[in-house]
Amino acid sequence: MVMYKCLAKPVTLVMLTTILSACGVTETIVPSTPATVSPPATLATSSPAAITTSVPPTDAAVLPTRANAPALAVISADTVDRVERLQTLSGHSGRVTAVAFSGDGAYVASSSKDNTIKLWDVRSGQEVHAFSANEMDLNSIDFSPDGRLLASADAIWDVESKQVVHALERGRNVPARVAFSPDGSLLAVALSNQPIRLWDVASGQVVRTFDKQADNFAFSIAFSPAGALLAAGGYHGWVRLWDVESGQIAGTLEYGNERAVHDVAFSPDGSVLASGGTDYTARLWDVASGQVVHTLWHRDGLYSVAFSPDGTILATAGVERTVRLWDVKSGRMLRALPHDDELMAVAFSPDGTLLASGGYDNTIVLWGIPH
Fold this sequence. Notes:
Blueprint: E1 4-6, E2 9-11, H1 16-22, H2 41-44, E3 84-90, E4 96-101, E5 107-112, E6 116-121, E7 127-132, E8 142-143, E9 149-151, E10 155-158, E11 164-167, E12 176-180, E13 186-191, E14 196-200, E15 205-210, E16 218-223, E17 229-234, E18 238-243, E19 249-254, E20 261-266, E21 272-277, E22 281-286, E23 291-297, E24 302-307, E25 313-318, E26 322-327, E27 333-338, E28 343-348, E29 354-359, E30 363-368
Antiparallel strand pairs: 1-2, 3-30, 4-5, 5-6, 6-7, 8-9, 9-10, 10-11, 12-13, 13-14, 14-15, 16-17, 17-18, 18-19, 20-21, 21-22, 22-23, 24-25, 25-26, 26-27, 28-29, 29-30
């Protein structure tokens, strides 16, 4: 019998819906026996073939013919073959570890091993500001939903004034992940070998600690669209689903191996969770059943996954130096976008017209469909 915990009281599968409702969870989770997913026979002895693309790599800081050209078409299954490299943003002296778009799509932010977070104007491709950070392991950033704030594990900044709103305490050289809640009132921070903490954005105080985490830490975190759940990808092949209100585990998705889960993301409607890590796969999970819907095979490990705003495409990026675009419904790969080096981050703009990626070549590439 599968057992669950809610308000620290074990319950059976039959009681799950009632208990979760009492805890205030609106997105029903029904974890089941961990799914064991094996690669198709054709992939057991060979890697997926690369998709040929006509987009050439470039070292230009800003492509002159594309720098100010608006990307009007939404990236979709019907338009993915028209996606091109529009701009390459150069300025970091260390590898890019994370990218994020502001809510209005006007800015893209990037964090780097050079101890800076850079704010870029999307239309011009110019650097607007560089926020100084204190730690080398600055591997996660997030904009508040309204775009007024930008957060890392070190601090929360006001984007307009460029001033620190709250300084967040953490240990030195500790890998960390951050995520704003959908309403912007909370900031989740996951630190190495420490419980996940929820910070109240207005006061800058910790309001909740997920203190029943196992001895392996979370590599990645993401709020569900309704804000009731927080997904956390871990070191030993698991994704935990936390009830935000109670701080209790609502379910666990098991990989069936000991590989790290580097990134997680909810689909815009909250029905699907994507995860990716060092087992060479991205997995699409049905949130309601806890079952794997599709296993997306790569040649190497993954660092980042991101859904398009309409939820139809998943972008994946990692060691193999490409951004892969997948059809969420069918699990079919639609396009591979080549990079010059390994990738650590990928993100869609809020309107779905741009895709940002960054990694070991110290640059951020903006992809889209030129006018």
